[in-house]
C-alpha cells in the first residue's frame, strides 16, 4: 500500500490573538480532513481574497462554516485581515474594525481562520504567499498595539 503525504504551509489566526504559521499534513487522508483538524471544526467554508502584493494571486481563507451558530468566539483579528486584503478597511485600528462590523455584520467571522495560497493551475490549496503572512502580522500587530 502506498502512503500519500502532502504538506501545505498556512497561517492560523485564532480569536484570542494567536497568529501562527502552521503546516497542514495529510497522510492517506484528505486536505479537507487536515483543515478540519487545524480549524477545529466539522465543516468549513472558503473565502477567496487577493494577495496584497500580486493582483493575480488568490488567497483562500478557510473558516468554520458553523462558527456563527455553534458558540465559537468572534475573530476580530482575522476579520480585519480579510477586510484589509479586500480593500474594505484602508485604516486598521479598533475603531475602524468596530465601525466595519457595525455597518456589515457579515464581515465578522467566528472561530479560527486559516489563510492559505491557491494554485490556479491545479485548483488545489497551496502554501501561503509570504507577503500575505507579513500583511496579516502587520494588521494584527496594529490592532493589538492600539487596543
Helix and strand arrangement:
Layout: E1 5-13, E2 19-27, H1 31-39, E3 44-50, E4 58-64, E5 74-75, H2 76-85, H3 94-103, E6 109-110, E7 113-119, E8 124-126, H4 130-146
Antiparallel strand pairs: 1-2, 1-7, 3-4, 4-7, 5-6, 7-8
Q: Can I get a quick summary?
A:
The chain contains four helices and eight strands, in the order E-E-H-E-E-E-H-H-E-E-E-H. By secondary structure, it is of the alpha+beta class.
Describe this structure in words.
- By secondary structure, the chain is of the alpha+beta class.
- The protein has helices spanning 31-39, 76-85, 94-103, 130-146; strands spanning 5-13, 19-27, 44-50, 58-64, 74-75, 109-110, 113-119, 124-126.
- Helix 2 (76-85) crosses helix 4 (130-146).
- The longest helix is centred in the C-terminal third of the chain and has 17 residues, at 130-146.
- The radius of gyration is 15 Å and the shape is globular.
- It starts with a strand and ends with a helix.
Amino acid at each position: 500500500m502506498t502512503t500519500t503525504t502532502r504538506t501545505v504551509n498556512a497561517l492560523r489566526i485564532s480569536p484570542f490573538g494567536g497568529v501562527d504559521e502552521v503546516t497542514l499534513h495529510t497522510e492517506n487522508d484528505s486536505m479537507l480532513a487536515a483543515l478540519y483538524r487545524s480549524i477545529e471544526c466539522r465543516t468549513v467554508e472558503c473565502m477567496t481574497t487577493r494577495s496584497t502584493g500580486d493582483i493575480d494571486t488568490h488567497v483562500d481563507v478557510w473558516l468554520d462554516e458553523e462558527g456563527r451558530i455553534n458558540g465559537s468566539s468572534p475573530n476580530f483579528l482575522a476579520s480585519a485581515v480579510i477586510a484589509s486584503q479586500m480593500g474594505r478597511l484602508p485604516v486598521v485600528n479598533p475603531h475602524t474594525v468596530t465601525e466595519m462590523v457595525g455597518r456589515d455584520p457579515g464581515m465578522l467571522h467566528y472561530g479560527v481562520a486559516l489563510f492559505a495560497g491557491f494554485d490556479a493551475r491545479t485548483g488545489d490549496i497551496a502554501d501561503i504567499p509570504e507577503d500575505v503572512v507579513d500583511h496579516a502580522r502587520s494588521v494584527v500587530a496594529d490592532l493589538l498595539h492600539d487596543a
